[in-house]
Design a protein that fits this description.
Mean pLDDT: 97
Distance between the termini: 27 Å
Oligomer: single chain
Helix content: 25-40%
Number of strands: 27
């Protein structure tokens, strides 16, 4: 049996950063376990690293290709829930937008029983991870591991500028930097791109640490099946690799970084969760923690597509360079709607005969609906049941419906009318009074799954503010699953922040 001081389960966004940071501990040995493989077809690898072909990676061998259960508020549809399956995880699939979230997102975490996680507490970790090339924000980080480039400095698409002009035409303010003092408004994105290529987390954190330190080991192509215990103390992990079972021991701690779908799955498979449900599928109960898998939620969006009257230039950086954050009504403490703008069809980007379209993606980034992740069976190789419960709360549905109206107003401006000749979707069949039906029929996952191993101090929380699993020793969770509520915007940066902060917590324990 292989033995290490620390075992990180999952080499995704959080796992890469955490494993790299733990390898900085003198004398400590670290293993990071990853179900996916470094070996990929070259065509998939090319689509991953090219910033404008992200739409072609989903559904490949680099994706778990998860799917939700039928969604009762989306006409019973099952929705794809993409998750990365390779070193770097979903940092190889996402759209590279670098959005921290609003100050109030993190202050709310602290108010809800997570002391130490207010915005002022986590800001040093955002700054630590960032290497931002411009100075649009006085609180941006420079010299960190993750490159943050400004779309405006790299020949942005002219139709992206037209979108920003349209926002200005409707009276929306300008934001110099969504991560700066003013998130609300329209502005250029900052993107995780370096030297013209996607800057994924394996490239930014894990691979440099593997090359420079001998105390870090990556075990890929190995799916975790169950945590191991001595009493109520976690001692390691069982995994399946190449058709054979294997056990890895952890002398100090196991840190689960599987994300909002796979982290609750491995806890449940190990007997940590709702005791009644575990007993029903034959899993012995180690710790009755009914919050495991609950509070699962996600941003939700719907496409509004316009057909251009002339050829839209090919992308030179990303496919989404600009966005608008705004409040659906003035009383919100932070923007609850994100209007993403995509200058083309991401699924047709390699097609020379592709139609010239633009896609606005209004999304509810302060969703109130909550769902769950649960086991389908006790077989670890079977995908879990995933229920985001999209639009269960009528407020989510109403806000998304109204956001389509805002998208239509933007298309009707002088700035965008110079590019767009007609609306393809929803189209004329969906008149204003039928837009609610359109939302039920076409709303999609924003791929920002969160919350299923919620951090807090109450009876439904799974981990404490030190990210230690309640009632269990030697076990932490550090990824999007611990978020009490997903931040207002793309959540990749906040996941890296969680890993950076977790590393410092573990280092402090190690020193003690």
């Amino acid at each position: 049996m292989d033995a290490f001081d620390y075992v990180v389960v999952g080499a995704g966004t959080a796992g890469c950063a955490l494993a790299a940071r733990l390898s900085e501990i003198d004398g400590a040995t670290v293993a990071v376990i990853e179900a996916g493989s470094r070996a990929l077809p070259q065509s998939v690898r090319d689509d991953i690293v090219t910033p404008w072909t992200w739409g072609l990676v989903q559904g490949t061998v680099a994706d778990w290709s998860y799917e939700s259960v039928p969604q009762p508020h989306l006409n019973g549809r099952r929705l794809p829930e993409p998750r990365g399956r390779l070193p770097g995880g979903t940092s190889n699939l996402y759209v590279m937008m670098h959005i921290r979230g609003h100050r109030t997102d993190f202050d709310a975490w602290a108010y809800q029983g997570c002391p130490g996680w207010s915005f002022d507490d986590v800001l040093p970790y955002f700054k630590k991870l960032e290497d931002q090339e411009d100075d649009t924000s006085p609180v941006a980080g420079h010299g960190g591991s993750l490159r943050v480039q400004a779309a405006r400095l790299h020949e942005p698409n002219p139709v992206s500028q037209a979108f920003l002009d349209a926002c200005r035409e409707l009276g929306f303010p300008h934001s110099d930097d969504f991560n700066g003092p003013q998130m609300e408004g329209a502005g250029w994105h900052h993107l995780n791109i370096k030297n013209g290529l996607r800057h994924d987390m394996a490239t930014a954190y894990l691979f440099p640490a593997l090359e420079s330190r001998h105390n870090l080991t990556l075990i890929d192509g190995a799916q975790a099946t169950q945590l191991t215990f001595a009493g109520r103390r976690c001692t390691g992990i069982e995994l399946r690799q190449g058709g054979e079972s294997r056990r890895i021991s952890a002398g100090r701690e196991v840190i689960v970084c599987g994300g909002a779908i796979d982290s609750p799955k491995i806890l449940l498979l190990s007997g940590i969760g709702d005791g009644d449900r575990l007993a029903q599928i034959g899993i012995p109960v180690l710790a009755h923690l009914p919050g495991v898998g609950e509070n699962f939620h996600n941003h939700v969006l719907v496409p509004v597509i316009g057909l251009a009257s002339r050829r839209i230039p090919d992308p030179k950086m990303g496919m989404s360079e600009a966005a608008l954050f705004y409040k659906s009504e003035p009383g919100w403490m932070s923007p609850d709607i994100q209007m993403a703008f995509v200058h083309g069809d991401p699924s047709q980007v390699k097609n020379p005969d592709r139609p010239s379209v633009t896609v606005m993606l209004p999304g509810v980034v302060r969703p109130l609906s909550r769902g769950w992740v649960r086991l389908a069976t006790a077989d670890p190789m079977v995908a879990p049941l995933i229920n985001p419960n999209y639009l269960a709360c009528e407020s989510d549905h109403a806000r998304l419906t109204n956001a389509i109206r805002t998208a239509r107003r933007l298309y009707a401006t002088k700035a965008l009318s110079a590019w767009i000749q007609t609306e393809v979707q929803p189209g004329s069949d969906f008149t204003d009074d039928r837009l609610g039906e359109y939302v039920r029929q076409f709303a999609e996952s924003y791929h920002h799954q969160a919350g299923s191993c919620r951090m807090g101090l109450d009876a439904s929380a799974v981990v404490d503010p030190q990210l230690r699993v309640h009632r269990i020793g030697g076990l932490r969770v550090a990824d999007a699953s611990v978020m009490p509520a997903v931040p207002s915007g793309n959540c990749h940066a906040a996941i890296v922040m969680i890993a950076e902060k977790a590393a410092d917590m573990i280092k402090a324990t190690h020193r003690a």
